[in-house]
From TrEMBL:
<feature type="domain" description="YgjP-like metallopeptidase">
    <location>
        <begin position="83"/>
        <end position="175"/>
    </location>
</feature>
<dbReference type="InterPro" id="IPR002725">
    <property type="entry name" value="YgjP-like_metallopeptidase"/>
</dbReference>
<protein>
    <submittedName>
        <fullName>Unannotated protein</fullName>
    </submittedName>
</protein>
<dbReference type="InterPro" id="IPR053136">
    <property type="entry name" value="UTP_pyrophosphatase-like"/>
</dbReference>
<dbReference type="Pfam" id="PF01863">
    <property type="entry name" value="YgjP-like"/>
</dbReference>
Amino acid sequence: MSLRFAIPELPPEEMLPGMTEGEIIVVRSARRKKSISAYRQGGQIVISIPARLSKADERAIVPEMIAKIRAQEASKTPSEASLIARITQLLELHAPELSERPTSITWRAMRERWGSCTSVDGTIRISDRLKSAPDYALDYVLFHEAIHLRFFDHGAQFTAILSRFPQEERAQAYLDGYEAAENALLPPAL
Ligand SMILES: [Zn+2]
């Protein structure tokens, strides 16, 4: 974690790229009188504080705000147990002929893929980029990986089942849009 202090307030479009994962940026704003805000932008946490806040107050407040953001994110992230429940529900609803169930679902830092499935041991991994995704996009990826428990490739049987997902086009558009934004804004993966 690195702390950068007293950098000028940047226009939002210059702050979009994820840049360094986990970086904390503290912005001193002359426009702010008392209020303090913190939010996640790409891989960074941006904390905006009043320009006149003392260094001592800043040192006390910044870790508090970081903890708050991380706690909020953790509470919004579906647990792995709840992902298994969601997959079960999706399969019961849209693919009752599939009896396979995952043995585990884990969040994984993956930038090249949205999910992966190992059918021999029934394990599924989901990209942590989906932690903040709308339900329909996360469910779509879960459903996709669940079908792989039976069908290895994206053949006709696979796509016939996947197309039963009610918001397939919308979910695909979300994922494509996310990737397009990522490709446009992020530095290439190392
Ligand atoms: Zn696939």
